[in-house]
Amino acid sequence: MAAARPRHVLITGGSRGIGLAIAQLFAKNAYRCTLISRSEDNLKAAVATLHPLPSYPIPSEQTSAEETQKLHNHTYIPGNITPASTFWSTTSHFGTYLPKPPIRLPSAHPSRIDVVVNCAGITQAKLFTTLADATMDKIITTNLTSLMQGTKFLLRHGYLRGYNRHEEGEQFSPVVINVASLLGVQGGYGAVAYAASKAGVLGFTRALATEYASHKVRVNAIVPGYIETDMTKDLNASELQQRIPLGRFGKPDEIAQAALFLAENQYAHNCVINLDGGVSAV
């Protein structure tokens, strides 16, 4: 039996780079995308690049035509997730695009979130002893604390909730996908706080996977190496590529393919996919 609604993916940092590539691939595979980022202009431009969704029947007769249209189009939520406590506790953000919590949506409801991709992050290029405390705090808050608080918000308020695998006539369990970094495993010069934050993302992934398995919510992570994005454009690419066995930076759509795999493979839980062109092996 076909699903009564498109699967719904929420992507932080979804307006560009890896986050946008993930949104574009999920949209091509008939997922409804909700993107979160700071710039509304960038979000509008990003949503405009997403493949339109096919028509789906609405299971509830109480859903209006206006709600039907909103719930079956890609959308976005503008906002700065730092400080994380302010963004995630301001439920008016979500009342505009999603039902306000607390909610207990049935699995067939079109506003249920099936996939959360935590991709928002900022980088660092400064020696640790010269790094201002405020900058260090911002890196940790953006890359790790906000990721944890956002995931907790979605779990506690019922946006992301496990359900019986046969409720919709298909086998699909909700999943959290965290985007970490090679530097969180290997370390990196001039990136101590960034590396620490990304190592924390992997620790969070493993711990939450253990804690939430009984709730029928899967938790996975991707560990990208050097990827062609705005975050790596100022690096010495020619020097770094000599260290990478495959001899090049990765592409955002290659990371997106891993995210789609983690979403759709129902045995992927506490799965950490390393995508770095082999640099971690040398």
Automatic annotation (TrEMBL):
Gene Ontology terms describing biological process: fatty acid biosynthetic process
Keyword rRNA-binding: no
Keywords recorded for this protein, A-Z: NADP, Oxidoreductase
InterPro entries registered for this protein in UniProt: NAD(P)-bd_dom_sf (IPR036291), Sc_DH/Rdtase_CS (IPR020904), SDR_fam (IPR002347)
Family annotation (Gene3D superfamilies): NAD(P)-binding Rossmann-like Domain
Top-level lineage group: Eukaryota
GO molecular function: oxidoreductase activity, acting on the CH-OH group of donors, NAD or NADP as acceptor; quinone binding
Any matching Pfam family: adh_short_C2
Family: Belongs to the short-chain dehydrogenases/reductases (SDR) family.
Protein name: 3-oxoacyl-reductase
Organism listed in the record: Clathrospora elynae
Lineage: Eukaryota, Fungi, Dikarya, Ascomycota, Pezizomycotina
